[in-house]
Amino acid sequence: MTVAFATGVCVLAALAHVCLVFLHVAPSTAVSQRYERQIDAWIYPYFEQNWQLFAPNPESVRLRISARTAAMAPDGSRQVGEWLDLTAVDDAAVRHSPFPSHTAQNMLRRAWAAYDQQPTPERGRMLQKYLANIAAERLAARTRHSFEAVQLRVVSTPIAPSAPSTPANVSSGGARSDARYLPWWQVESHDR
């Protein structure tokens, strides 16, 4: 009886998932327009569908995403940690792995790209929390102190179009970097 019930729940969940993904990727209909909020709540950020596997967009900027922590000291002042280059951590993990995961290669970059597209306020809050959680998780693995807030710094450098004599994705010497500092975001306390 329990096995049959569990199997039924799994089958219903799988059917609901397939239907919601179909409504997300199919051309717009009255049903998909009416339930757009519910469909988006299920799809983003974990089940997002796109065509980049078949026609990827070449990167036009090189991103360096760094993060730092903050904690309240006993005297009430804010103790701010050093910047950790999260992009360099990802690059090192990919470079030294014979089978790098798609997550290690793209999670941080795609989370930033989704957040930076100025989505709706509701989705923006969700993406802010997602980005803050990625940073907090990676910082917690590399810091020895407790913290309650994180701040991100995103440095973008334009990538010059490749010419026949230069390798692809080499930034031009005159490219000017732009740094963007995000506000402090509260995260779940990471005690050490």
Chain-wise SSE layout:
Blueprint: H1 2-25, H2 30-34, H3 36-43, E1 61-72, E2 78-80, E3 84-85, H4 86-95, H5 102-116, H6 121-142, E4 147-158, E5 178-181, E6 185-190
Antiparallel strand pairs: 1-2, 1-3, 1-4, 4-5, 4-6
Signal peptide: 1-30
InterPro entries: DUF5819 (IPR043857)
Keywords: Signal
Question: Can you tell me about this structure?
Answer:
The structure is a single chain. Strands 1, 2, 3, 4, 5 and 6 form a 6-stranded antiparallel β-sheet that branches. The chain has 6 helices and 6 strands; from the N terminus they run αααβββαααβββ. It starts with a helix and ends with a strand. The protein is of the alpha+beta class. Helix 1 (2-25) packs across helix 3 and helix 5 crosses helix 6 (121-142). The protein folds into 2 domains: 2-43, no CATH class; 61-190, no CATH class. It holds the Pfam family DUF5819. InterPro entries: DUF5819 (IPR043857).
